[in-house]
Amino acid sequence: MSQFIKQIELLEPYDAKVSRTVLRGERGSNASDLPDKEYYDALKKVKNLVKDARKVQQTILLVGDITDIYVNSFERMLNDPYFTVEELSAIALGYTKLLEESAHLLNDLKAVVNENGLSMSDKDRMDIVDTCYSRMLEYRSLVQYYTNKNIGVSYLRAKKQNDVDRVMSLYGSPSERYW
Predict the structure, then answer these.
(1) Closest CA to 153 of 99, 97, 73, 98
(2) Which pTM does this prediction carry?
(3) Do 65 and 109 meet the contact criterion of CB atoms below 8 Å apart?
(4) Distances (CA, A) of 171 to 72, 79, 150, 177
(5) For residue 94, what pLDDT is reported?
(6) C-alpha count within 13 angstroms, C-beta hemisphere, residue 5
(7) Does residue 154 have a pLDDT over 80?
(8) Which one of 35, 73, 99, 128 has the minimum C-beta count within 10 Å?
(9) How does pLDDT run across 100-126, given as a tens digit for each residue?
(10) In sequence order, which residues have a C-beta less than 8 Å from that of residue 135 and are 6 or more positions away?
(11) What is the C-alpha separation between 137 and 142, in angstroms, rounded?
């Protein structure tokens, strides 16, 4: 036994052969039992489809965000004494246009998700989902920007009248303000 230990000590650190686990199937060979390229390609497709399913969900949630921003902000603007009826009509028209564009994107997304016999590759479908998601993010940012600018107009008018506290309280406490 001591002779065996001496021989091991004499070996260089990388001279030893490292053992590896070998997967064996029922027939003693692992060649047919190991996953092949087709398996990994199919797995990658499923992963991409799941990722796109999440993007579809996130896109729909973004529409909810856009609607919430519009409903909550416009409701407050209706109670804001620094907007005239004509201005409120113009603001409502701006929100309507933004909501219509968001609805068009949802229709595009619906057409892709509900295949309806359209011959479309998964890559084409995923590209459209990505485009819809990106554009919906842009619309959400645009609605937020539009809202912030409108609130800013009210704030400037209130500042001229030394009535900033009223506008600040109308559009939420400091922790609620998103503008």
Answers:
(1) 73
(2) 0.66
(3) no
(4) 9, 10, 11, 7
(5) 95
(6) 2
(7) yes
(8) 35
(9) 999 898 888 887 777 654 567 778 888
(10) 105
(11) 9
Share of the chain above pLDDT 70, in %: 64
At 161-172, the pLDDT tens digits run 999 888 888 887
pLDDT at 178 exceeding the cut of 60: no
Contact of 177 with 171, CB cutoff 8 Å: yes
Residue whose structure tokens are 């590759």: 121
What digits encode the pLDDT tens for the residues 64-90?
Answer: 999 999 999 999 999 999 999 999 999
Residue matched to tokens 């900033």: 164
CA nearest 88: which of 77, 102, 72?
A: 77
Closest by CA to 177, choosing from 84, 69, 96, is 69
Contact status, residue 69 vs residue 128, Cβ threshold 8 Å: no
What is the structure's pLDDT at 97?
Answer: 94
Angstrom distance (rounded) from CA 115 to CA 49? 14
Contact 99, 126 (CB under 8 A): no
Written in H, E and C, the secondary structure of the chain is CHHHHHHHHHCCCCCCCCCCCCCCCCCCCCCCCCCCHHHHHHHHHHHHHHHHHHHHHHHHHHHHHHHHHHHHHHHHHHCCCCCCHHHHHHHHHHHHHHHHHHHHHHHHHHHHHCCCCCCCCHHHHHHHHHHHHHHHHHHHHHHHHHHHHHHHHHHHHHHHCCCHHHHHHHCCCCCCCCC
